[in-house]
Amino acid sequence: MAKKRAQPAVRKTRTDAARNRERILEVAKEAFARSGANTSLDDVARQAGVGAGTLYRHFPTRDALLEAVYHTEVAKLAAAERELSAKLPPVEALRAWMMLFVDYIAEKHIIAPALNSFVGGPSKLYESSRAQISGAIEALVKRAIKSGDIRKDLDAFDLLRALIGVSNVASAPDWQQSAKRLVDILILGSRPIR
Amino acid sequence: MAKKRAQPAVRKTRTDAARNRERILEVAKEAFARSGANTSLDDVARQAGVGAGTLYRHFPTRDALLEAVYHTEVAKLAAAERELSAKLPPVEALRAWMMLFVDYIAEKHIIAPALNSFVGGPSKLYESSRAQISGAIEALVKRAIKSGDIRKDLDAFDLLRALIGVSNVASAPDWQQSAKRLVDILILGSRPIR
DNA sequence: CGGTAAAACGGAGAGTGTCTCCGAAACATT
DNA sequence: AATGTTTCGGAGACACTCTCCGTTTTACCG
Q: H-type helices in chain B, by residue range?
């Protein structure tokens, strides 16, 4: 009694639907990078060659679209955690990952305000992205704690907040340098007392 | 030849103008605190009992209004620096001021994205507020460096960026706690290398 | 005081963005 | 090819931003 198939059960997703979804995602990614998180969604729809209705059906809110756009990027960051952990000593790995995070935001022009939702509200939307990112930093921190290089009571989430926060202030020209200096300060400040 | 008064020279500002300006400021402050930095300015104008044109004449941009609204708040923070410096040892003063900053943002619901402009762009608008805030933290850091409790090469601006950044991520419920833990980490990480 | 020029007011309206609704079109399935 | 479902798309209702300019208010002067 596990699977009935009396009625057509599940219909294959229509190809035009899938195609449009992809196209929207592609255009949106570029638009967000170019003009920030406030790009006109109608514009995105137009450039993707679909009607506004189509865009809003696929992504009911601006946040939903942002989440979808950065989903793959987030996955890459999570993957980097595993790599770094494998080839670097605990603290170094943590540091390297944080630096990577900064670079990522700088390069891809990911809009930090959107990231807020990762550590922020109870939005179901970001659930999976948040899980990936916080999973990554938690693993890194846990390993560093175990090795004795980081204080036992450090909350990985605090570090994530700091990281996102620092990346938020991205207007100044030397932002990236400043962010990296701060990563070092954060790590230094997270060492065991003495 | 210091003061001519051939022509009417300077006219006293009209009382209605001053009154309206005050009223707008008052309403805007409340509105920003209640509904964030994106409140409808037309609404603000309506609630202040003036036309949209009046609001925009006094404050040409949303940022200008924000700046004006928080001008006095910023002044208070700057004043606190002097007080704390007078009654606490260098690092303690720095720490206390940073904590105060966090509290301030939490309590007054100051919209952090607006603060970005303080450390950010070359906007002439925020010039005075920025000067006050960065002056405060620079003084605190300089004193702490002189006392030997903080590393010589620490950039006060970095610290300010971190502070604003961390305050930015204000969605989580335990945000304030997290922010304060981070302040401690930042200060610890800014100590001399031994 | 009353007159007058200068300054401020205010709201209509043009431009733009958001989001919904529903008839028309495209699709998977039989 | 017919059928019934899913998706499309863009017109349109609504909201917000910001400007323009005829009208009103005010400070100043005689």
A: 15-35, 41-48, 52-58, 62-87, 90-108, 112-119, 127-146, 156-168, 175-189
